[in-house]
Design goal:
The chain is α+β, with helices and mostly antiparallel strands and about 230 residues long. It has 2 domains: about 1-35; about 50-230, Alpha-Beta Complex (Ribonuclease Rh, Chain A), CATH 3.90.730. It is about 35% helix and about 15% strand. The chain has helices at about 1-35, 60-65, 105-115, 120-130, 140-150, 170-180, 215-220, and strands at about 50-55, 80-90, 165, 190-195, 195-205, 225-230. The strands form 2 sheets. Strands 2-1-5-4 form a 4-stranded antiparallel β-sheet. The protein has a two-stranded antiparallel ribbon with strand order 3-6. Helix 3 runs parallel beside helix 5. The radius of gyration is 24 Å and the shape is globular. It starts with a helix and ends with a strand. Keywords: Signal.
Length: about 230
């Protein structure tokens, strides 16, 4: 009888330990989600800290993309910096694909997008991935992208056709700083790929009224001593 009682008590203890471990695991999982932004707004539209305007150097994209957009890369377009996207951003990380039910852009919205994006396919992709996190409808999001692009001056060194060049990433940043009043190196990122200039990403306030520091992004600057700035073709 005592053996049976002892066995029952042992079973209850083991069940209690298992329950405690399960509760601890559930708690840890919840904490992990919170650390990753799951409870900072997660992927809720409009819940972000600032915008990033990503300006892609088109010659690098056309040279290195596995399947480059034929319209953007058509001979004679001579594109330099083009809008890649306007990205809602957290202080650390970013939301994406925020709407389970996508609101397709209207024809009028796509007309606005056509003023700033190099291709319709890119504009639609950016709406799905990033625009749905802005809290705006498609037309308003594309207008915001247009406004953000208008707020950034492309340095003269990157305007017009010219030969391939080699520049230090810090020199590229300095050219943008000199061309844009209020912009500082800690408000932007120069990105490279395969030893070539890929993008310049400018951090803007959520209301798009000015530039804003983004140290986490700035720390990810290209580390190459020099990068190729391919000629527009």
């Amino acid at each position: 009888m005592r053996d049976g009682q002892a066995g029952g008590r042992g079973l209850r203890v083991r069940r209690g330990i298992a329950a405690a471990l399960a509760a601890a695991l559930l708690s840890a999982t919840g904490a992990g989600a919170q650390d990753q932004g799951g409870f900072r707004g997660g992927d809720r539209p409009g819940a972000f800290d600032f915008y990033v305007l990503a300006l892609s150097w088109s010659p690098t994209y056309c040279e290195t993309a596995a399947r480059p957009d034929q319209r953007q890369c058509a001979p004679g377009r001579d594109l330099g910096f083009v809008v890649h996207g306007l990205w809602p951003q957290y202080e650390r990380g970013y939301p994406q694909n925020c709407s389970a039910v996508e609101r397709a852009p209207t024809r009028q919205a796509m007309e606005i997008a056509g003023e700033v994006y190099p291709s319709e396919g890119l504009a639609r992709y950016e709406w799905r991935k990033h625009g749905t996190c802005s809290g705006l409808d498609p037309a308003a999001y594309f207008r915001a992208t247009r406004e953000a692009r208008a707020a950034v001056t492309i340095p003269e060194a990157f305007q017009g056709a010219g030969p391939d060049r080699r520049l230090a990433p810090i020199e590229i940043a300095r050219l943008f700083v000199a061309a844009n009043r209020g912009l500082r190196p800690d408000m932007m990122q120069v990105a490279c790929a395969r030893d070539a200039l890929q993008e310049v990403r400018i951090c803007l306030t959520k209301d798009l009224r000015g530039f804003t520091p983004c140290p986490d992004l700035a720390r990810q600057n290209c580390r190459a001593r020099e990068v190729t700035v391919g000629a527009a073709r």
